[in-house]
Amino acid sequence: MADCNPVMADYGTSGAVNTSTYAIGGAVGERENVTAANCIRDPDQPATRSFCQHEDAFQSNTCLGCIPRGDWSNAKVSTDMTLVSLSNQIFAPTMSVFTQNIMYKVHPKVHANLNGAMATMASPADPVFFFHHSMIDALWTIYYKCQAQGARSTDPRVFPPSDWNLFNRRVCGPYSFIPKTTSIRFSVSRSTMSMLYHNGTTGAATFDVGDPRSPLAPFFESTPTSYLAYSQYPPSSGISYDFAGTGLDVLLSECSSWLTSPSASPPPTAEPASFLESRGKSKRRPKAVSKQIHASQRMYTHTRKYVRNERKAREYVEMMMCVHRNECLGGVFDYSDSFKRSFKLHLSPYCYDVLEDLARGRRSIPVPGWAKVLMDTFGCDIHRSTGHETSKKRRL
């Protein structure tokens, strides 16, 4: 991941590996023990020198002054982060399904693969957290533009039904919301919404960020207080996203038709793999992005010869990518027990479950010749595992 995204290098990457364990967050007895490859203090990046592991350390002036991080040089780009998977996650029939897709797949996978503080509820202490969540917000923007634009406020594509909160409690853990606030944001409904500060260790919601007494209030003052105004596309606030060169621009412009659109897959260029390097120099996509789009279209075209149902065909292509990840790119692993505890997850990564089902005969990929097309398209380059997840690699 660090090789693909120069932003991570700009924020200190993860340096030399020097494994240590740190107690982070919460009160005494409630802190998380985080095993990190290194604790980063980048002389060129002040944000890395401002980390404090918990309030007691802040009050006693004993902050670490460095950010515990995993070995980002070996943090893999997982299948959940590919355009094929993101497409399946975004182009969902309802807001509830979209939310579940993101919560089950790309969101926790990035946290887990980066490891260190990012693999805990202390992750907002790392500035890279905000890049990750800006990306999640960008996916939400694509969903609204492609799936819910123009829909009525009562449409399940716009506002989730009553089971949405039940889902969030089940996946994210039971939280008690007992805020003390004068903000109009606190009522959660179709007309108003609240954004609450959370203690990630205890689950307590202590104040609303929109409360005038909140130190974060100036940052949020330009955002609408109405859920519907906040969610509408085009955005009503001054916040927008630049999708250029990331591959997400194809999903935004072509929506679910990107897998069959000739305009989505121009010939690969000699542009650098870094989209940040290429921006401002050319409107052409980086070679790596164009190659992924072209390869995904090729896999989908082959699959559709044998599968009539469009949604099933897209799912099979993602399953193929899971197999490729397992056999050629270092393996597919379950989340570690510590990560599941921290994020209150009671599930495994999508690809881990897919490979389990394939191995046990519960699922299949009914597409003749798919393995050959996959290998001809992506090749097979064996990589060692990295230890960011548990060592329980799926075997077929």
Automatic annotation (TrEMBL):
Family matches, as InterPro entries: Di-copper_centre_dom_sf (IPR008922), Tyrosinase/Hemocyanin (IPR050316), Tyrosinase_Cu-bd (IPR002227)
Residue ranges of domain Tyrosinase copper-binding in the record: 126-137
Pfam families reported for this sequence: Tyrosinase
Gene3D superfamilies associated with the record: Di-copper center containing domain from catechol oxidase
PROSITE patterns with a match to the protein in the record: TYROSINASE_2
Superkingdom field: Eukaryota
Keywords, ordered alphabetically: Copper, Metal-binding
Protein name per UniProt: Tyrosinase copper-binding domain-containing protein
Chain residue ranges for the region called Disordered: 261-294
Lineage: Eukaryota, Sar, Stramenopiles, Oomycota, Saprolegniomycetes
MF terms in GO: metal ion binding; oxidoreductase activity
